[in-house]
Write a structure and sequence with these properties.
mainly alpha; Endonuclease Iii, domain 2; Endonuclease III, domain 1; 2 domains
Length: 223
């Protein structure tokens, strides 16, 4: 049986259909209107386990009060906690302040466009580092979380082992199909499809641009 990463027809259809859908149906958020690494990093720190619609007003107020790393590094822990507690993320506040101080002291207030340096920052893991690299630094890297895993596993008909976002085969597949030229739009597209169409429960398959070749759809038809 041919492995998904070698099936160019499936991959081409996946990428082209996803991008076409995104250009017509993609969501608009303030952090998508910028390529400022600082603003994108702040957004990603707020977006963890939180609905994007809830993040928008908090993010806009936060960026207005702390427009750059330097102003954030001078903030009081209580003030940062005020913002993050509104998102149920008060436990992140201390890390955010520590991160800002490191960026000022070690990187002159700049967010490094380097994976290892990003991963060394408090509160920054694989997903956030990939998001900053793709969305802010124009580095072609796949952004993979449980939502992305769900779409890839359903479409290609594969079962992730353990925690999907750490599954080597899933990560290899995600990197393989990533379009280098339009990686930013592609990563936004797969995030939006997971949120709007390919949901964990009761996915809206009839609205999905991938349904024609999706293994999940074919399997449920047979069942």
């Amino acid at each position: 049986m041919e492995t998904p990463s070698k099936n160019t027809e499936l991959i081409d259809f996946f990428v082209n259909s996803l991008l076409s859908w995104y250009y017509q149906n993609g969501r608009s958020f303030p952090w998508r209107e910028t390529k400022d690494p600082y603003q994108i990093l702040v957004a990603e720190l707020m977006l963890q386990r939180t609905k994007a619609s809830q993040v928008v007003p908090v993010y806009l107020e936060f960026i207005k009060e702390f427009p750059d790393v330097f102003s954030l590094s001078r903030a009081s822990p209580e003030r940062i906690r005020d913002y993050f507690s509104r998102l149920g993320l008060e436990w992140r506040a201390e890390k955010v302040l520590t991160l800002a101080k490191i960026l000022v002291e070690k990187y002159g207030g700049r967010i490094p466009c380097d994976k290892e340096k990003l991963l060394s920052l408090p509160g920054v893991g694989e997903y956030i580092s990939a998001a900053v690299l793709s969305f802010a630094c124009n580095v072609p890297v796949a952004v993979v979380d449980s939502n992305v895993v769900r779409i890839l596993s359903r479409y290609f008909g594969i079962t992730p082992r353990g925690e999907g976002r750490r599954d080597k085969k899933i990560l290899e597949l995600a990197s393989k199909i990533l379009p280098e030229q339009f990686h930013r739009e592609y990563n936004f597209a797969i995030i939006d499809l997971a949120a709007l169409v390919c949901t964990p429960r009761k996915p809206k398959c009839e609205m999905c641009p991938l349904r024609e070749k999706c293994s999940w759809v074919q399997k449920n038809k047979k069942d």
